[in-house]
């Protein structure tokens, strides 16, 4: 006699109730520590970011950046996956979960953390001298000192090998001249990690922002990442001592490895923005009535929600997979490009679809959808445009270099 699979299944093996917030049961892959970190960061954003972020975004400012940095330092979120020097030593997956929760609040807040930890602190931790690490990392981990990372230039974004910023020797000192553009945290930083061309190749320098000849005018009139501080760095014969250079990095591999670490955080973070927009659209669809019933009951709306859920949770699974590979020491830059390309592209599409479900309300700051969508327009192209990551993967697949 045949019986249904469900009837034949022992009581203890029956599947759990379907959870719309976690339809694939991804939380089963997380440890208690992982979940605790996620809960802590989510609670902090609910208390400190969500009540004010629409106001910050509308004003185009982040007025409490130093206070927020110290609070994030107290949480252990700055340089989170680094070890020693006051850093938390968390796993890559735990760092990713934090990035997801931060960007679920706003991409600008996640950018503050990413630039501090994955770019500035990571560069010092990996390439700095012991003296440089002791001087900067503990204060940066605590949020007492903010860092920025100067690689992109006004005329050279995707092609850093063409940078014009120069560092030349003057006795035992260095003189730095040039400009960097689109630098997160630039005007509030205490130290700038600046990459410049030298006779020996591209080198990294730790530039105290109070050094004569250094300035960081803030970039205004942005329509994206408005709750984030973005600056230009101007270096006019900034004199630095010999020990300002990062001794462990010569050539572009140094800054590019920092970018890979930061891109990994974006793989997770983009899914945070997407999750907020999906959850907003789902809640709205169950409450908004047209033609005498909730719009969530119409086939076209349900098709949109189903497709959004598919891409959201596939993206989270991809981020989790890459995190496990990073924790195992088996991650490759091409795999991070895979994640960054897919998740930013799909996150933006989720936000755009959510906007259509909300209709006219989708453009209002009373809802987070348009804010996340405009932020993701920047996240889509910074730290590697769509086209550059496509070419990274194209080269990996074919063995042929199409960059030039």
TrEMBL record:
Pfam families: Acyl-CoA_dh_1, Acyl-CoA_dh_M, Acyl-CoA_dh_N
Domain of life: Bacteria
Cofactor(s) needed for function: FAD
MF terms (GO), sorted A to Z: fatty-acyl-CoA binding; flavin adenine dinucleotide binding; glutaryl-CoA dehydrogenase activity
Keywords: FAD, Flavoprotein, Oxidoreductase, Transit peptide
Protein name: Acyl-CoA dehydrogenase
Residue ranges that the Swiss-Prot or TrEMBL entry lists as coiled coil: none
Organism name: Streptomyces sulfonofaciens
Keyword Flavoprotein annotated: yes
Database matches in SUPFAM superfamilies: Acyl-CoA dehydrogenase C-terminal domain-like (SSF47203), Acyl-CoA dehydrogenase NM domain-like (SSF56645)
Domain Acyl-CoA oxidase/dehydrogenase middle, first and last residues per copy: 148-238
Location of the Acyl-CoA dehydrogenase/oxidase N-terminal domain: 31-144
Domain Acyl-CoA dehydrogenase/oxidase C-terminal: 251-397
Protein family membership: Belongs to the acyl-CoA dehydrogenase family.
One GO BP: fatty-acyl-CoA biosynthetic process
């Amino acid at each position: 006699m045949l019986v249904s699979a469900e009837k034949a299944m022992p009581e203890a093996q029956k599947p759990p109730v379907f959870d719309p917030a976690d339809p694939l049961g991804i939380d089963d892959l997380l440890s208690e520590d992982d979940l605790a970190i996620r809960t802590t960061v989510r609670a902090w954003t609910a208390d400190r970011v969500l009540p004010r972020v629409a106001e910050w975004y509308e004003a185009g400012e982040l007025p409490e950046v130093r206070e927020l940095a110290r609070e994030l330092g107290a949480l252990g979120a700055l340089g989170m996956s680094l070890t020693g020097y006051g850093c938390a030593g968390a796993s890559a997956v735990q760092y990713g979960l934090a990035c997801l929760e931060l960007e679920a609040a706003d991409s600008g807040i996640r950018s503050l953390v990413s630039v501090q930890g994955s770019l500035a602190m990571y560069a010092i931790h990996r390439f700095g001298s012991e003296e440089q690490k002791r001087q900067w990392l503990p204060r940066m981990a605590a949020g007492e000192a903010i860092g920025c990372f100067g690689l992109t230039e006004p005329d050279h974004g995707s092609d850093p090998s063409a940078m014009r910023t120069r560092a030349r020797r003057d006795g035992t000192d260095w003189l730095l001249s040039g400009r960097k553009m689109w630098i997160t945290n630039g005007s509030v930083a205490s130290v700038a990690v600046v990459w410049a061309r030298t006779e020996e190749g591209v080198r990294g320098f730790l530039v105290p922002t109070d050094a004569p000849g250094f300035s960081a005018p803030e970039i205004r009139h942005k329509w994206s990442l408005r709750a984030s501080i973005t600056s230009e760095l101007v270096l006019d014969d900034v004199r630095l001592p010999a020990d300002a250079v990062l001794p462990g990095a010569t050539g572009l591999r140094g800054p590019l490895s920092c970018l890979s670490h930061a891109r990994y955080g974006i793989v997770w973070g983009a899914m945070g923005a997407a999750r907020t927009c999906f959850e907003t659209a789902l809640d709205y669809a169950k409450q908004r009535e047209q033609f005498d019933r909730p719009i969530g009951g119409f086939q076209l709306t349900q098709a949109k929600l189903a497709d959004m859920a598919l891409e959201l949770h596939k993206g989270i699974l991809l981020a989790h997979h890459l995190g496990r590979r990073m924790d195992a020491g088996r991650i490759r830059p091409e795999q991070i490009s895979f994640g960054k390309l897919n998740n930013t592209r799909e996150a933006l599409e989720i936000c755009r679809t959510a906007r259509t479900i909300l209709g006219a309300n989708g453009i209002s700051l009373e809802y987070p959808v348009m804010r996340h969508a405009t932020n993701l327009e920047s996240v889509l192209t910074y730290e590697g445009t769509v086209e550059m990551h496509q070419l990274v993967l194209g080269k990996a697949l074919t063995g042929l270099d199409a960059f030039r």
